[in-house]
């Protein structure tokens, strides 16, 4: 097409043909352009407005705003010993947790997907359940468990040396790893599922031992997913606020996000300091992304050809009980203990009196379940917003991923960098950016939709916060599709939308649903954006939970959190299980009839 | 083609659903007080005027939101603890002066009258103060602190809020400097708050938690928070320092750009009426344990009201706000 255009214009043929060519170029560019514009509006502009204040400190001053350039905020931030130490703390923590999380998550994924261990199905739900628990609740649960007067100490299960060393780097790495390993399980597990077993089977037939197969074949093929998991975890730790404001704060382990929060929660807000620290944070993440791109210049493997065979399970022999015990230990620490602590707090009157019989009460849970209460309204509101956000974010991520697959490497790197960067930008900063764009910026503030102060902007903020995750999950799956599949359809004259819906979507459907459910669950508990963009019509559940915590009514807050987790979990299960059943048989059927399917046939031709 | 139609339909439906929850109420209230929601509900039931209640979390977070909204504020009324911050917002023209007539209508007690600011930056609706929170399981009766100076003997196990994150905590810090002198006060705090783990907490609830479960034996906390814990059966008491306590008014401020002045006036009338005050006293959380400042209204049972007050010089507190908060952050938080 491009060749024809160039040739036509070079020959200087009639203007009619030129116009036609121009229109074709326009049509071709319009799709990607629209998508990038949405992306820039969702994340780019709000982020830019926060960051630009690092060099234009007076831009959003309450009175007499000015756009004078000044490097004073940056100089102030770089000269501060506190910021330097929080940068080092954030880096140290991020690196350590990225290693431990990727190792734990990878091992867990292999164990659950490829090994013949007892209770495999039950264990495979653990990452989802851990993911259901928001990080601030997990942090609170561990504080309840490990603090000097906490539950473990009350039961005499906590040696004092452990209690005191917990509130520091050790405890942070421990809780972060247990809290984030599902992310690694999802990313590596998805790649593992798409890997199939043809290559492995071939190697085995040639006499290679399992260890050699994993080191020489599966390992390198999974490398992009492992790297993605590493980067996503690193970014997640850098941007984490739940642990930063609880365990890190209590151990005087200052990290960047807390510094940004502290600068943004006062009157007047120290916007320049927040912007300058956000700039440092973003710079760190971009460095990692660029380093990652430079390290693996090789093309990503494209393996799913529509025919991959479900892999065989390894028989672990006498080790299978030990493997199960390890998986159950992870489940106990990551899920059972924190949930028990929250449930215990939800069912007791006071914290100080501990777990004695007279201290138990059902009042908190009853209050959370009663209809037409503020708690219940907030809960329903959050479930609605989360469902809507999940639909929009996963659809958008699918469109973007399909476009990005065909985009130039530079643009691809830029968009991935920006989206991972936005993972690292704390929600509270993105929330501030949204207020600045939609309440302060002339041209935006008078738009009726989305509008600051109602649900539309909150959902938009949620979508922006969720989009990077959806992209990571869906890109990983689309990246494995052999381009020959869609190329074949395109050569047969199938349009873009139909190619996306009839070929790409069915092949990556499980990933799209994974993205949908991840978004749904995360959004039900998303805290900072809910807080900054509260609709005037009423607060979503996280703001309510936080308010109760800050007013030390953590009994009721724990009860609401428990009910919310149950509601989100049941909702997710209702989507996931029927769909899994629906997708799996079709997959195997596709395999049996692959030879007779024209698309699959073309897809595998060289 | 079918898939395409369904897809477009789904997107269209989502967009419609998003557009739906726009609201247009008679009054928008930003607050960080436990009783604001119930009061708004009772006001709505009585007058038929609708109120949207927006509560981002702590006082600091509410103020952060107002600061971010800048010259395009979305609230009509802001209702918070702390007078200094109200003065500051009035000075920035975020708030307008409360009409004199609104004060004249209220039967303030002497304490109430003393809280009315000259600038008319806010209308006081009640008050509380800062006290020393002591865990009776950890501190024996004969070792109870009696003054701010006594807290030195608890150095390392004193919990306090960061004035950068808490309006009430700034009110306390400014008052503490007023009664002890700035330099002497700084020296005293430096000797007392030696454990950074507890010196920069973000809310009264966290001070309670540190005193109840952590290593802290005593805390510097808003007294209404301590009384709500006592009412809940927790083993704590409130000790008022012998130097005197600086009162911490709950103030109603009016947005400089409100378009609903009539509704604002009605809301003020309701809050200061016996009916409104009854709603403010009908709950178990921190703020319901306020000290009433209107004649004929009595505090919740068990709440101490016989307190020796000193009043805060709001002008000085407002003028030094940035400097003192910065000092606190650099000394105890970072």
UniProtKB/TrEMBL annotation, chain A:
<feature type="transmembrane region" description="Helical">
    <location>
        <begin position="383"/>
        <end position="402"/>
    </location>
</feature>
<feature type="transmembrane region" description="Helical">
    <location>
        <begin position="414"/>
        <end position="437"/>
    </location>
</feature>
<feature type="transmembrane region" description="Helical">
    <location>
        <begin position="556"/>
        <end position="577"/>
    </location>
</feature>
<feature type="transmembrane region" description="Helical">
    <location>
        <begin position="274"/>
        <end position="295"/>
    </location>
</feature>
<feature type="transmembrane region" description="Helical">
    <location>
        <begin position="500"/>
        <end position="525"/>
    </location>
</feature>
<dbReference type="Pfam" id="PF00528">
    <property type="entry name" value="BPD_transp_1"/>
</dbReference>
<keyword id="KW-0997">Cell inner membrane</keyword>
<feature type="transmembrane region" description="Helical">
    <location>
        <begin position="213"/>
        <end position="235"/>
    </location>
</feature>
<feature type="domain" description="ABC transmembrane type-1">
    <location>
        <begin position="87"/>
        <end position="292"/>
    </location>
</feature>
<feature type="transmembrane region" description="Helical">
    <location>
        <begin position="322"/>
        <end position="344"/>
    </location>
</feature>
<feature type="transmembrane region" description="Helical">
    <location>
        <begin position="93"/>
        <end position="113"/>
    </location>
</feature>
<feature type="transmembrane region" description="Helical">
    <location>
        <begin position="33"/>
        <end position="56"/>
    </location>
</feature>
<keyword id="KW-0813">Transport</keyword>
<protein>
    <submittedName>
        <fullName>ABC transporter permease subunit</fullName>
    </submittedName>
</protein>
<feature type="transmembrane region" description="Helical">
    <location>
        <begin position="165"/>
        <end position="192"/>
    </location>
</feature>
<keyword id="KW-0472">Membrane</keyword>
<keyword id="KW-1003">Cell membrane</keyword>
<keyword id="KW-1133">Transmembrane helix</keyword>
<dbReference type="InterPro" id="IPR000515">
    <property type="entry name" value="MetI-like"/>
</dbReference>
<feature type="transmembrane region" description="Helical">
    <location>
        <begin position="125"/>
        <end position="145"/>
    </location>
</feature>
<dbReference type="InterPro" id="IPR035906">
    <property type="entry name" value="MetI-like_sf"/>
</dbReference>
<keyword id="KW-0812">Transmembrane</keyword>
Automatic annotation (TrEMBL), chain B:
<dbReference type="InterPro" id="IPR006059">
    <property type="entry name" value="SBP"/>
</dbReference>
<protein>
    <submittedName>
        <fullName>Extracellular solute-binding protein</fullName>
    </submittedName>
</protein>
<feature type="signal peptide">
    <location>
        <begin position="1"/>
        <end position="24"/>
    </location>
</feature>
<keyword id="KW-0574">Periplasm</keyword>
<dbReference type="Pfam" id="PF13416">
    <property type="entry name" value="SBP_bac_8"/>
</dbReference>
<keyword id="KW-0732">Signal</keyword>
């Amino acid at each position: 097409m491009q060749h024809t255009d160039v040739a036509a214009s070079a020959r200087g043929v009639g203007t009619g043909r030129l116009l036609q060519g121009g229109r074709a170029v326009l049509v071709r560019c319009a799709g990607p352009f629209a998508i990038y514009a949405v992306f820039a509006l969702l994340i780019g502009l709000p982020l830019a407005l926060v960051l630009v204040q690092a060099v234009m400190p007076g831009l959003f001053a309450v009175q007499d705003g000015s756009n004078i350039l000044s490097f004073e905020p940056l100089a102030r931030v770089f000269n501060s010993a506190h910021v330097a130490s929080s940068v080092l703390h954030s880096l140290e923590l991020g690196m350590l947790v990225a290693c431990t999380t990727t190792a734990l998550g990878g091992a867990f994924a292999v164990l659950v997907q490829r090994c013949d261990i007892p209770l495999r199905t039950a264990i495979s739900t653990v990452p989802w359940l851990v993911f259901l628990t928001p990080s601030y609740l997990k942090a609170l649960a561990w504080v309840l468990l490990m603090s000097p007067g906490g539950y473990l100490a009350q039961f005499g299960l906590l040696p004092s040396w452990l209690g005191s060393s917990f509130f520091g780097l050790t405890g942070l790495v421990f809780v972060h790893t247990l809290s984030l390993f599902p992310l690694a399980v999802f990313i590596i597990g998805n790649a593992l599922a798409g890997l199939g077993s043809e290559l492995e089977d071939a190697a085995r037939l040639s006499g290679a031992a399992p260890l050699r197969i994993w080191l020489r074949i599966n390992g390198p093929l999974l490398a992009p997913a492992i790297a993605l998991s590493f980067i996503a975890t690193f970014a997640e730790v850098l941007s984490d606020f739940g642990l930063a404001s609880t365990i890190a704060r209590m151990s005087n382990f200052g990290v960047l996000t807390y510094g940004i929060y502290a600068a943004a929660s006062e009157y007047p807000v120290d916007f320049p300091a927040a912007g300058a620290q956000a700039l440092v944070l973003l710079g760190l993440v971009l460095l990692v992304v660029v380093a990652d791109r430079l390290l693996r210049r090789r093309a990503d493997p494209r393996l799913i050809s529509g025919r991959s065979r479900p892999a065989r399970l390894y028989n672990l022999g006498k080790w299978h009980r030990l493997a199960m015990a390890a998986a159950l230990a992870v489940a106990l620490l990551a899920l059972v203990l924190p949930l028990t602590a929250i449930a215990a707090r939800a069912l007791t009157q006071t914290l100080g009196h501990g777990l004695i019989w007279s201290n138990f009460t059902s009042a908190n849970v009853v209050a959370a379940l009663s209809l037409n209460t503020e708690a219940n309204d907030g809960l329903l509101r959050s479930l609605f917003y989360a469902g809507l956000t999940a639909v929009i974010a996963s659809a958008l991520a699918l469109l973007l991923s399909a476009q990005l697959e065909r985009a130039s490497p530079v643009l691809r790197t830029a968009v991935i960098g920006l989206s991972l960067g936005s993972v690292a930008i704390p929600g509270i900063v993105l929330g501030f950016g949204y207020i600045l764009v939609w309440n302060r910026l002339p041209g935006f503030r008078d738009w009726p939709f989305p509008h600051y102060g109602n649900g539309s902007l909150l959902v938009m903020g949620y979508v922006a916060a969720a989009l990077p995750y959806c992209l990571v999950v869906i890109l990983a799956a689309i990246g494995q599709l052999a381009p020959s599949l869609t190329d074949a359809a395109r050569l047969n004259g199938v349009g873009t939308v139909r190619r996306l819906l009839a070929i790409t979507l069915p092949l990556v459907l499980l990933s799209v649903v994974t993205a949908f459910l991840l978004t749904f669950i995360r959004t039900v508990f998303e805290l900072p954006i809910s807080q900054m963009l509260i609709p005037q019509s009423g607060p979503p559940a996280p703001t309510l939970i936080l308010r109760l915590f800050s007013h030390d009514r953590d009994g009721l807050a724990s009860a609401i959190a428990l009910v919310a987790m149950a509601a989100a979990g049941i909702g997710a299960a209702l989507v996931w299980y029927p769909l899994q059943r629906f997708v799996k048989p079709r997959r195997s059927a596709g395999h049996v009839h692959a030879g007779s399917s024209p698309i699959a046939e073309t897809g595998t031709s060289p | 083609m079918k898939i395409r139609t369904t897809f477009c339909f789904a997107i269209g439906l989502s967009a419609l659903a998003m557009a739906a929850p726009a609201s247009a109420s008679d009054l928008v209230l930003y607050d960080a007080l436990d009783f604001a929601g119930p009061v708004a509900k009772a006001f709505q039931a009585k007058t038929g005027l609708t109120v949207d209640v927006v509560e981002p979390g702590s006082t600091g977070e509410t103020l952060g939101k107002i600061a971010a909204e800048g010259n395009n504020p979305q609230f009509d009324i802001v209702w918070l603890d702390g007078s200094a911050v109200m003065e500051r917002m009035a000075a920035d023209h975020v708030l307008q002066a409360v009409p004199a007539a609104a004060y004249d209508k209220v039967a303030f007690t002497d304490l109430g009258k003393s809280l009315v600011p000259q600038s008319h930056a806010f209308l006081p609706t009640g008050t509380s103060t800062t006290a020393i929170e002591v865990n009776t399981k950890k501190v024996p009766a004969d070792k109870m602190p009696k003054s701010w100076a006594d807290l030195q003997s608890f150095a390392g196990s004193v919990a306090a809020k960061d004035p950068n994150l808490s309006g009430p905590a700034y009110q306390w810090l400014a008052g503490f400097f007023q009664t002890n002198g700035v330099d002497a006060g700084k020296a005293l705090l430096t000797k007392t708050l030696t454990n950074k783990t507890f010196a920069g907490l973000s809310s009264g609830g966290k001070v309670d938690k540190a005193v109840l479960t952590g290593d802290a034996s005593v805390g510097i906390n808003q007294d209404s928070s301590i009384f709500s814990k006592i009412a809940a059966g927790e083993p704590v008491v409130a000790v008022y320092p012998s130097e005197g306590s600086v009162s911490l008014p709950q103030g109603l401020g009016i947005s400089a750009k409100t378009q609903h002045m009539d509704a604002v006036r009605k809301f003020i009338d309701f809050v200061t009426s016996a009916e409104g005050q009854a709603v403010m006293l009908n709950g178990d959380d921190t703020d319901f344990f306020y000290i009433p400042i209107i004649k004929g209204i009595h505090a919740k049972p068990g709440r101490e009201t016989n307190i020796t007050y000193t009043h805060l010089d709001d002008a000085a507190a407002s003028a030094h706000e940035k400097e003192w908060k910065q000092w606190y952050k650099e000394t105890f938080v970072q």
